[in-house]
Each structure stands twice: as C-alpha cells, then as structure tokens.
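Could you help me review a protein record that somebody else here produced? Here is the record exactly as it was handed to me:
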Amino acid sequence: MSDVPRIPFLALVLLCGCPATAPTWSSMIDDDAHGALSGVWGSAFDDVWVVGGRTMDSAEILHYDGMEWTEQDAPATSLLAWVFGWSADSALAVGIEGSVASWDGSSWTVLDPGTDENLWGVWGESEDDVWIVGGTPDAAEPTILHYDGSTFTPVALDPAQNPRGAHQLFKVWGVDGRTWAVGEAGLLLELINDQWTAVSAGAQADQDFVSLWGPDSEHVVAVGGRSNGRVASFDGTAWDTVSPSGVGGLNAVFMDQEDSAVVGGVSGYVGLFSPSTGELVREDSPSTLDVHAIWGDGERHWAVGGRFSEPLSGLLWVRE
C-alpha cells in the first residue's frame, strides 16, 4: 500500500472551511507534588528544563525528554528562579541568595557569583557572554553581573542609568545584537556601546516590568504590572506600553512570532497579546495559581509557576 501524503492541519481547515480548534491549556502535574516552579527553557521539544524549589532554601529541577517529565538531581542551592541555555549540553540557572548552577550535559554544578543578592534572570549571547540580573527590595541598586564563562563581574548603575530608583532588575533578554533588561517601577535598560542606558517605554510604564522576550529586534514584548497588568512592545525604534483593562499583574511572556505573544500572570491568567493591535485575549487555564514563566518549542507552550509562600506548590501546564 502506498504512503498517503500528510496534509497540514491548517491546509485542511482552509480546504474544508472548518473552524480551527483553539489551543487549550492542561496540567501535567499534581500541583501539591512539587514545590514552586519559576523558570522554563529548552534546547528542543525533547530537552526542556524547569527550575524552582521545594522550599526557598532548596532547589528543584525537572526535565522533559519528549515523552515524560522526571525530577533531576538538583544542586545544593536555594530556589532557582530562571534558566537559560545554548544547547543540550550547556545551560545556566540562577536564583535567590546568589544561587547559580551550570549544566554541562551530565550534571548541575554550583557556581559562586560573588554575591548573595537574589538573582532573578539570566540570558547570554553565548556561554562566555552572559548577563545576570537581580536585587532585593532594600538593596541600594539592582544587581547586574556579567559572566565570561569563568569570572562574574559586577556592573554598577549610576543615577542617570537608574532614573526610577529601582532596587531590582527581574529579567534580561537579547536578540539581533541588542540587549535589554527590565525591573522595578517600569525601568527599562538597553545595552548601548557596552553601557546600560535607561530608555522610555511610554507614559503607562509606571509599574514593575517582570519579563520580556522577542523573536527579533523589531518585535519584542515586555510584561509586568502589580495592581494592573502592563504590556510593552518594541517595534525596532520605540517602546509603547498599554494597560489592558481588568487584567492583574503579568509575569510571563514568550514570543516566537512577530505579532503573537503568549503571556501569563497572577491567579492563573494566560492569554495571547497582539503588538499590532494592542489586544490581549484571555484563555482558559487549569487553576488559579500564579504563572511565572512560559517557553515554547514551536508546536506547544509550557507554563510554570505556583505558590511561593509556605507551603510551596507548583504548576506545570502545556498549551497545545
């Protein structure tokens, strides 16, 4: 019998005129079986890492091999807040109280960054050109570290670089040779000529920005807000921020398409944001636990989060 050619789903929809099935979110774990899960990243659909903590003083790491999620041997460190990598054999996770752990393809190893400040975000152009950001509410200024693969170098901000008086930076992201970091009170920094420079994100950028992502330097989205959600978008020239009505604080964003960002936030909020229209459409979620991070492999999206007060509990959802 000859092979029957497979017709893509979208082509079938167009041929028959049938409505496309909207993506749905479903839970992959028992919320109470794990601690709070804070960061997710993968090198491929069958190599996905999730980091968090059983308690604030102990890390937890899960791995997906394309078939199932399994708990991994976690390094002896505090809760890990974020993870980013470059290949199946290279990743870096950071967390509270100066926690840093490196993955080499076989095990996680604790590194000493020279600080005990909370580290909330990590991103790097390469393994030897990495930026880590963080801080605490009572810190004199945000924590910024540059890691060259062997040495962690602290980078200070002067008042002109931190006009909002932020104490913490929460995430850092780069694409196409441009790098940004976001933090308290709507602080948005761009690395220009090797100097962190404050840039405006518009009049409504008046609350914390918590995370950002983008597929290229003309399509980047940052999310945040505390009393009400904030969504900022960058078109390659300027940033603009909107405050969607009736949406609480947002923590998570993943964007691998030019006009579509999957976002998540407090009380189980998940939705789809369009930078071109400024529209944010809510999607149904499995629970009311807070969403902290989202990552996608091109076919599905993974969301993680949970409750970060004792007793800690976690969420791990898939959108497909």
